[in-house]
Amino acid sequence: MSLERFINQAISPWMNEDGADSDIVLSSRIRLARNLKEHTFPTLYSIEEAKNVINKVEKAVSSGYPDYLGKLEVLKMEELQPLQKRVLVEKHLISPHLAEDSTYGACLLSENESISIMVNEEDHIRIQCLFSGFQLTEALNLANVIDDWIEEQIDYAFDENRGYLTSCPTNVGTGLRASVMMHLPGLILTRQMNRIIPAINQLGLVVRGIYGEGSEALGNIFQISNQITLGKSEHDIVNDLKGVVVQLISQERSAREALVKTSNIQLEDRVFRSLGVLENSRIIETKEASRCLSDIRLGIDIGYIENISKNILNELMILTQPGFLQQYAGGSLRPNERDIRRAALIRERLKMEKDK
């Protein structure tokens, strides 16, 4: 395992696994925020304290990490180039905060990239587990196994009344963020999403774009996650989110069926126009590429397109981001140069699918 493999491989191995309802739920994620007892939190700590935290976590990992979870690779932020960190963000393996604001941070990654333990992000430790499809319970179970193992090695900052103590008050309690990434083109095309989002927010959940807070919903991909971490158990938080996701899956399926029933030829035309754009464009911006890729994935799920893998959306949504494009180019690119390379890469990738 090497940094080059994490950087150069767009699709994480866990993405190739077929989780439940994977035509709509692209991934499930559990993240646990933890801090070390008797250590200043990252918002106020010194460089020496930051290094001490990394050393403690590394020592814990080297002294008995469960073999069945696989080996963890340690990546230190101070040893990475800005472009390398950007690629890891685009793959959702580290957060933008760790990449941009934590010089003395680190990340421990599993070989299949489903486990990511961020050190010295907003909190000392953030355990992240990623699963394909709708597998929130499975992700929570794995995160709890890792959390229990680390707690055997390191004392956490914990209060009997408040629960786990975190840098941000919104994470106090369980320190849990549960989220799913959903592809919802049916609800967008039938203009239902603007009505659904406020209803979800009223339930204590939040709807964000593909890269979390402050990001756009590129390619009709939305991240649904909990906001409340205090006063509920981990299982209650996950079950609340699961209940909403089940409803969204049902509504998305109904929206797709309605589109096929009432606008079949128009929908088919939209799908194949988007395919034509991607197969022939010589220059294309991120937003247009994302929209066309979303249409193609919808066409695959509905059955209009049969000779392209459904993983094409996952792969190209990552592969055509600025960081990846520049990584493959071997250096920085101007926006226009990125648009040209994006178009070429998509053409080549789609041709590979047809030549199989």
Describe the structure.
- With 356 residues, the chain is α+β, with helices and mostly antiparallel strands.
- Among the domains are: 1-14 and 29-162, 2-Layer Sandwich (Creatine Kinase, Chain A, domain 2); 259-355, no CATH class.
- Helices cover 48% and strands 15% of the residues.
- The protein has 12 helices and 10 strands.
- It has helices spanning 3-8, 47-62, 82-90, 96-101, 136-153, 185-189, 193-202, 234-280, 286-302, 312-319, 322-329, 335-354, and strands spanning 25-34, 72-76, 106-110, 115-119, 125-132, 158-159, 163-164, 176-183, 205-208, 221-226.
- The chain has an 8-stranded antiparallel β-sheet with strand order 2-3-4-5-1-8-10-9, with helices on one face. Strands 6-7 form a two-stranded antiparallel ribbon.
- Strand 3 (106-110) and strand 4 form a beta hairpin.
- Helix 9 runs antiparallel to helix 10 (312-319).
- The longest helix is centred in the C-terminal third of the chain and has 47 residues, at 234-280.
- It is globular.
- A motif (RDXXRA motif of the pArg binding pocket involved in allosteric regulation) lies at residues 338-343.
- Keywords: Allosteric enzyme, ATP-binding, Kinase, Nucleotide-binding, Transferase.
- It catalyses: L-arginyl-[protein] + ATP = N(omega)-phospho-L-arginyl-[protein] + ADP + H(+).
